[in-house]
């Protein structure tokens, strides 16, 4: 367990800064040392901005000395999944095709975190263009699970989850298209929040599947997830899918027990069926028992089309990805190669620049969108997606939130599933439905597993009701 | 169903090696077999869900933001213009 480390929460950092018992520069040095000490083994970072972080930390200390008001995120040590742009730093999304690309602008979430005065330590390793469930698809290096370095950390935001679990950063931002925040968070024993579609701007996130992708925080506690969520959520006109007038409460990180206890909890039986390990089911049942004993109303519910979520996902996602990744044509973003016939350039740069999983999904997406197959695959998948989404709406007439496991198994061994794509895709069967429906969902570590591999339970909520799932989570961790 | 990896990799402008062609053909046939499950769902009266939101026409002013860092990221810049290889040929109607 030498790779695990408990670290300061956001409120511990801001309280110490306010009292003057902590300097941002000390904290930054501590975190940079931690990265230097263990990241060669873990592989969570593709890029560490040591000088930039130290210079900014010094500047922040001076600002605080001269009276800067310390906010909830001030001085936090932060990393971003490499698909999220931070001006001036390389941004590869884990792909060789972007190996020379340096971001020339900030993602909206990066801008918002800058306003909150966080210290950026660098960019996290990830599955290439967020395609993967184990981080084995990074074109650069593996990420190891800090709980057991023979195991995968989950993916695709595996570098971000490993960085948080091992105490290298206070929190990280990841992106979640079919579980890429929640699944690695569950496997690394940290908290991961997939936000409601349209709540957090995607501007500056390299798009994989635009109707599914959402940015969200990976943190050590639900309370911290709420604080980060509050800072990054909200409308921008730079993202056409960003909702105006969201109206999230300023107090979203403060637990109101009385109000929380009125939440009706649903337990969908389809999430406890075949393919889910007994250990996971038993473990998540202890969480449900906890809420029952606390007096919450709990009801078994049914989402019968859950089994269709994976096949729908493996049509909609590659279709959108094949379109989004057309921009990586080898003519822009860093380097180009030869100046011969343009078609030759495309074919070669894309053939050499993309890894196997990306090529596989682009070919599949091109097929399901092609003339003659569009209706049979893509259109049908969009209709079944509507069915899945309507089932959630119906069940949410009856209950406020749903509790399920996050993953079917605990973290598996490196190499165990990399030869079989379909088996790998099964890792996301419990997380994909929330993306298809666009609803918020959080993964929270089940307590009492200190010497075992972590297990996460998932709470899903109604659209734009992050408050419900966050307060239920805070109730569990209080 | 006639899935031919060569055809779709070519449409997507991706060179594949022989080994990749064989492997992806097999992987994707297996996956397409799995997604055939969807044929069991009755969707005759269902409207497709075409995106993640029901927002319409979210427009903004189109004001370009470009600076030195942007220009240095583009592989070929000449006199302030971004330079790309020739894509149209007067001897051909379209690119093949």
UniProtKB/TrEMBL annotation, chain A:
One of its GO terms (molecular function) is transferase activity. It catalyses: L-glutamyl-tRNA(Gln) + L-glutamine + ATP + H2O = L-glutaminyl-tRNA(Gln) + L-glutamate + ADP + phosphate + H(+). Coiled coil: none annotated. The active site is at 81 (charge relay system), 156 (charge relay system), 180 (acyl-ester intermediate). Its EC number is 6.3.5.7. One of its GO terms (cellular component) is glutamyl-tRNA(Gln) amidotransferase complex. Keywords: ATP-binding, Ligase, Nucleotide-binding, Protein biosynthesis, Transferase. GO terms for biological process: translation. PROSITE patterns: AMIDASES (PS00571). It comes from the Bacteria. The keyword Phosphoprotein does not apply. The keyword Ligase applies. Belongs to the amidase family. GatA subfamily. Heterotrimer of A, B and C subunits. HAMAP family: GatA (MF_00120). Allows the formation of correctly charged Gln-tRNA(Gln) through the transamidation of misacylated Glu-tRNA(Gln) in organisms which lack glutaminyl-tRNA synthetase. The reaction takes place in the presence of glutamine and ATP through an activated gamma-phospho-Glu-tRNA(Gln). This is Glutamyl-tRNA(Gln) amidotransferase subunit A. The gene is gatA.
UniProtKB/TrEMBL annotation, chain B:
Keywords: ATP-binding, Ligase, Nucleotide-binding, Protein biosynthesis. One of its GO terms (molecular function) is asparaginyl-tRNA synthase (glutamine-hydrolyzing) activity. SUPFAM superfamilies: Glu-tRNAGln amidotransferase C subunit. One of its GO terms (biological process) is translation. Its EC number is 6.3.5.-. It catalyses: L-glutamyl-tRNA(Gln) + L-glutamine + ATP + H2O = L-glutaminyl-tRNA(Gln) + L-glutamate + ADP + phosphate + H(+); L-aspartyl-tRNA(Asn) + L-glutamine + ATP + H2O = L-asparaginyl-tRNA(Asn) + L-glutamate + ADP + phosphate + 2 H(+). Pfam families: GatC. Heterotrimer of A, B and C subunits. Belongs to the GatC family. NCBIfam families: gatC (TIGR00135). Allows the formation of correctly charged Asn-tRNA(Asn) or Gln-tRNA(Gln) through the transamidation of misacylated Asp-tRNA(Asn) or Glu-tRNA(Gln) in organisms which lack either or both of asparaginyl-tRNA or glutaminyl-tRNA synthetases. The reaction takes place in the presence of glutamine and ATP through an activated phospho-Asp-tRNA(Asn) or phospho-Glu-tRNA(Gln). This is Aspartyl/glutamyl-tRNA(Asn/Gln) amidotransferase subunit C.
């Amino acid at each position: 367990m030498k790779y695990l480390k408990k670290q300061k929460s956001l409120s511990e950092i801001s309280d110490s800064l306010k009292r003057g018992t902590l300097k941002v520069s000390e904290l930054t040095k501590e975190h940079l040392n931690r990265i230097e000490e263990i990241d060669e083994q873990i592989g969570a970072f593709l890029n560490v901005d040591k000088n930039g972080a130290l210079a900014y930390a010094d500047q922040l200390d001076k600002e605080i000395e001269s009276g800067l008001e310390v906010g909830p995120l001030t001085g936090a040590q932060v990393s971003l999944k490499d698909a999220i742009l931070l001006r001036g730093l390389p941004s590869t999304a884990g792909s060789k095709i972007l190996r020379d690309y340096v971001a020339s602008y900030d993602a909206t979430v990066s801008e918002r975190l800058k306003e909150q005065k966080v210290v950026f330590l660098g960019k996290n390793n990830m599955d290439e263009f967020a395609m993967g469930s184990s981080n084995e698809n990074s074109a650069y290096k593996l990420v190891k699970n800090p709980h057991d370095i023979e195991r995968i950390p989950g993916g695709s935001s595996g570098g971000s989850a490993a960085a948080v679990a091992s105490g290298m950063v206070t929190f990280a931002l990841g992106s979640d298209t079919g579980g890429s925040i929640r699944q690695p968070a569950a496997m690394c024993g940290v908290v991961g929040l997939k936000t409601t579609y349209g709540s957090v701007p995607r501007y500056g996130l390299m798009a994989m599947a635009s109707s599914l992708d959402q940015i969200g925080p990976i943190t050590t506690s639900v309370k911290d997830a709420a604080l980060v969520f509050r800072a990054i959520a909200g409308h921008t006109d730079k993202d056409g899918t960003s909702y105006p007038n969201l109206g999230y409460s300023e107090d979203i990180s403060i637990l109101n027990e009385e109000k929380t206890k009125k939440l009706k909890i649903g337990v969908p039986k389809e999430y406890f069926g075949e393919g889910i390990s007994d250990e996971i089911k038993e473990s998540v049942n202890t969480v449900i028992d906890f809420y029952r004993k606390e007096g919450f109303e709990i009801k078994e519910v049914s989402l019968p089309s859950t089994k269709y979520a994976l096949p729908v996902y493996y049509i909609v996602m590659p279709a959108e990805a094949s379109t989004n990744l057309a921009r990586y044509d080898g003519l822009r973003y860093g380097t180009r190669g030869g100046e011969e016939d343009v078609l030759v350039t495309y074919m070669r740069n894309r053939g050499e620049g993309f890894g196997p999983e990306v090529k596989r999904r682009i070919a599949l997406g091109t097929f399901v969108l092609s003339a003659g197959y569009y209706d049979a695959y893509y259109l049908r998948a969009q209709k079944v997606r509507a069915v899945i989404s309507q089932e959630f709406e119906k069940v949410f007439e009856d209950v406020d939130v749903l509790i399920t496991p996050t993953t079917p198994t605990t973290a598996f061994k490196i190499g165990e599933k990399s030869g079989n794509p379909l088996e790998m895709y099964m890792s996301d069967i419990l997380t994909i439905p929330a993306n298809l429906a666009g609803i918020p969902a959080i993964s929270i570590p089940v307590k009492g597993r200190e010497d075992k591999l972590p297990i996460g339970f998932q709470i899903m909520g109604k659209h734009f009701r992050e408050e419900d799932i966050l307060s239920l989570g805070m109730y569990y961790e209080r | 169903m006639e899935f031919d990896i060569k055809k779709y990799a070519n449409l997507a402008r991706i060179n594949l090696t022989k080994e990749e062609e064989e492997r992806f053909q097999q992987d994707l046939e297996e996956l397409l077999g799995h997604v055939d499950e969807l044929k069991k769902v009755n969707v005759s009266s269902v409207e497709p869900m075409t995106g993640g939101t029901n927002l319409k026409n979210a427009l903004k002013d189109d004001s370009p933001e470009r600076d030195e860092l942007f220009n240095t990221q583009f592989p070929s810049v000449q006199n302030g213009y971004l330079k790309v290889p020739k894509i149209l040929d007067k001897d051909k109607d379209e690119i093949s």
